[in-house]
Design brief:
The protein is of the alpha/beta class and 820 residues long. The chain is built from 31 helices and 28 strands. α17 (451-459) links the parallel β16 and β17 (463-465).
Length: 820
């Protein structure tokens, strides 16, 4: 019989969190001579792998099996926490029973604990008692005493079929084998009971099964009745004889994940814009001050200066486009083509030229006109459009530098590595950064969808945005830590925290290297489940880049690059050539081509789209294609023509009603018949709540779904994902979004269709694991995310991801999901 003495019980404890509670329980074990100090760390590691919460306010933290050498003798400790401590989201613990067991001597304690779980009044007495002997007496009762006091007995019932089995596992039916038994039992409709001695338990209830206290070598009577009773008995007999997953060691499959920084130093929280850890001195980024006069004598001379400055700026932007295209791809460089188009804006040139006649300098007029347009954008209700004000100011400053009489270079970037803090950054700013010197940046304003954030991700520069005005008053020169993964800046870390951060940074870099080296291995889980990991791309050359990064195809081709920043629509031949080039680069791997997805938020001269107060609730996506039929049919012909060069699928964007989908399919079928082309697989984006609610009906109309979690999140939560103030809340891992995805997967599977996800959370290792657990078959993401996600999938059994997914669905906030 295990001894539990007064020295092993701590009353009225007040730990600040779960970690501290486990450490207090472990210290009692150490002080009592039960374990070596290293066993406490083993208890913490075990908690990362398994949930030790029993229920009804009781947790049983214990070490990993491979660390039993640290146990001097079997013992337990009890930490009473009257106020409770959060163990996991929705789980509050008041009694922490720390366990150090070399053998099965502790099983009587566990058996008694399961009986306490059935008696809330007993739990409350133990939580609030001032007498440690009351806790000791309740937990060390003999089996007979406990059985006599329990009213949970079930009368034996005559069952149709039964079999006697011997439990061979050295620890009997403790938590892990009992859990395995219950999971298998629940797969059958039959009623299942387990009898040991004179006590009977429900075979589908973990708590009921644990209360039997089945020890190694015990004989149990397994009974079943119902439609599939024979099959249930056979399956459970095999499971018991094979050991119910009982092993001497924990599963050794490594879980690959970034080191989480939990520094004790004060932090400033913002929005994660680009992952990674940076450690360097803070440096405040301030733009050069441009000096110019307000008035001029010759309007003609000022006009010549203006035109020359615009021409020079265009040449710079062309060079910048080529540079960024080479470093980060055409998709990331496209913003600088848009800047060139802005300089050709006839209304801007006309307004500026007209005001020169009043005697103002070109510099003065240009600054006023560009700032007025920037302020107009800032005032729009659509925050994604409002963020484009930064682009207008960026290109305006570029021209103004060439109009200024003097440039006051008061602040320059240092030659040594730094972390920049700034009010905001323009795409030009970020594109000019050398990652060797700019280790990371933190801005007061901005959102995760800004072009500066997108550029940072493509250059692998850790970044935090939307951190508030506080960052602008931080002292510069001191070494700081920037955690781009969690969106946190530690402006004045302690020496101890710097050591921790440096180690985490090295582990981060080493992990990235391991992921890159193994990028061509399939995303195959240890228990044999395959997930397709593919890329989101927006330019022809990115298809090859996706394959080189380990991508298994393209899950989302954004075709907008063919239609934007031009004065006339692309021809069928031009589009087909681009699609063929990408299909050939993929060499038979799938290419999902999303048809044109634009609306009133884009400036497309040849379409003459009217400005809309809220373009994201207006004519966009498939709605626009249905109203611009000639444009739509030309694109469909180009896709069908290119299909002979590879494995193409068609996907329609922003579908909200069955009528829209059926109309699009009818046009596609008409075009296909006119070309006598073979049919292609047809899918649709799931971005609108109406599709989720009617997913079964939509699934009957298509071959596959692809969930766009970015738009689905903002429509479900009524939050613009580009809004700096709401970016943290507009989280794709919000339980509402995850439940919508689960509902979509269930409906699709009922109709024999598969579901992919092409939104941001597919490229988040945690999000990828949850989505896989929900039944998502394909994960499509930015090219840079592919190696890390494939590594994460390879490290986790499907069963574990399924459990993680189910836990996420029970959460109430995105923060709870991210803490799982």
């Amino acid at each position: 019989m295990i001894n539990l003495g007064l020295e092993n019980v701590c009353l009225k404890a007040r730990p600040g969190n779960k970690r501290e509670a486990i450490q207090q329980a472990g210290k009692l074990l150490v002080d009592s001579g039960f374990v070596e100090p290293g066993y406490v760390d083993s208890m913490l590691r075990r908690e990362e792998q398994a949930n030790t919460y029993l229920g009804n306010g009781i947790a049983i933290p214990h070490g990993q099996p491979q660390d039993r050498d640290w146990i001097r003798k079997t013992g337990i400790s009890v930490t009473q926490i009257p106020d409770g401590v959060e163990w996991n989201p929705g789980e509050r613990v008041h009694l922490v029973v720390g366990i150090a067991a070399r053998s099965d001597e502790h099983l009587q304690i566990l058996t008694n604990l399961t009986h306490v779980l059935d008696d809330p009044a007993a739990v409350q007495r133990l939580v609030h008692t001032n007498d440690p002997s009351e806790i000791i007496e309740r937990l060390t009762r003999s089996t007979t005493e406990t059985a006599g006091s329990s009213n949970g007995h079930q009368q034996d019932v005559e069952f149709e079929q039964g079999v006697d089995l011997v439990i061979r596992g050295k620890s009997g039916l403790h938590a892990r084998p009992a859990t395995a038994f219950v999971e298998r039992a629940k797969a059958f409709d039959a009623d299942i009971q387990v009898r040991c001695g004179d006590r009977t338990a429900n075979g589908k209830s973990l708590m009921s099964l644990l209360k039997l206290g089945v020890e190694s070598g015990s004989t149990i009577r397994l009974m079943a009745r119902g439609r599939d009773a024979a099959a249930a008995l056979k399956a459970l007999q095999v499971a018991v004889e094979e050991g119910l997953e009982e092993t001497d060691e924990e599963p050794t499959t490594p879980v690959i994940e970034l080191p989480a920084l939990n520094l004790s130093s004060p932090s400033i929280n913002g929005v994660s814009a680009s992952p990674g850890i940076a450690i360097a001195p803070l440096h405040r980024y301030e733009r050069s001050r441009l000096i110019f006069s307000e008035t001029a004598e010759s309007p003609e001379a000022e006009l010549r200066k203006l035109l020359a400055a615009i021409a020079t700026a265009k040449a710079e932007l062309s060079d910048l486009y080529d540079t960024v295209k080479q470093r980060a791809g055409a998709g990331k460089a496209a913003i600088f083509q848009a800047h060139q188009e802005f300089l050709d804006d006839p209304e801007l040139l006309q307004a500026t030229t007209a005001r020169l006649a009043s005697g103002q300098t070109a510099a003065s007029v240009w600054q006023q006109e560009t700032e007025a347009r920037a302020k107009t954008l800032e005032g729009l209700s659509d925050r994604l459009l409002a963020e484009r004000a930064t682009d207008v100011r960026d290109v305006g400053q570029r021209v103004l530098r060439h109009l200024a009489e003097r440039v006051d270079e008061t602040v320059q970037l240092p030659d040594t590595p730094v972390i920049l803090v700034a009010n905001d950054l323009t795409p030009s700013d970020t594109a000019s950064f050398d990652p060797a010197r700019i280790q990371g940046f933190c801005t007061a304003r901005g959102g995760a969808t800004s072009h500066a954030a997108i550029m940072a991700r493509s250059l692998n520069i850790p970044a935090v945005v939307g951190a508030g005005e506080t960052v602008l008053s931080l002292p510069v020169g001191g070494v700081a830590v920037l955690d781009g993964d969690r969106g946190v800046l530690y402006a004045q870390p302690s020496e101890a925290d710097l050591v921790v951060a440096a180690q985490a940074q090295q582990e981060h870099l080493a992990l990235r290297d391991v992921e890159w080296q193994s990028r061509f291995q399939p995303a195959l889980t240890p228990d044999g489940h395959r997930v397709e990991v593919v890329a989101n791309i927006g330019a022809p050359e990115e298809a090859e880049q996706a394959i080189l990064a380990g991508g298994e195809g393209v899950g989302l081709l954004r075709t907008e690059f063919l239609f934007l920043n031009r004065t006339e629509p692309p021809t069928q031949a031009e589009q087909s050539a681009a699609y063929q080039r990408m299909a050939q680069s993929l060499n038979g791997l799938p290419l999902i081509v999303r048809t044109l997805d634009i609306g009133g938020d884009k400036e497309i001269p040849y379409l003459n789209l009217p400005a809309e107060e809220n373009p994201f609730l207006g004519v966009r996506g498939i709605r626009l294609c249905l109203t611009q039929r000639e444009l739509f049919e030309t694109q469909l012909r180009a896709i069908l023509q290119a299909a002979s060069s590879g494995y193409l699928r068609i996907m329609f964007p922003m579908v909200a009603t069955l009528e829209e989908l059926r109309a699009a399919k009818a046009i596609l079928e008409s075009v296909r018949r006119s070309l006598n082309a073979p049919p292609l697989e047809v899918g649709m984006m799931v971005e609108v709540p109406s599709v989720v609610l009617m997913a079964r009906e939509f699934a009957r109309e298509v071959d596959f779904f692809s969930v766009g979690t970015n738009d689905l999140t903002q429509y479900l939560l009524a939050m613009d994902r580009g809004h700096p103030a709401l970016a943290k809340q507009a989280d794709g891992l919000h339980p509402a979004v995850l439940r919508a995805i689960a509902q979509t997967v269930e409906a699709a599977e009922s109709e024999g269709k598969w579901v992919g996800v092409c939104g941001g959370i597919a490229g988040d290792p945690l999000g990828a694991a949850i989505l896989t657990g929900l039944g998502v078959s394909e994960l499509s993401m930015s090219i840079a995310s592919i190696p890390a996600v494939k590594a994460r999938i390879r490290s986790l059994p499907l069963t574990r991801m399924q459990k993680l997914a189910q836990r996420s669905l029970r959460c109430q906030t995105a923060e709870e999901v991210r803490s799982l």
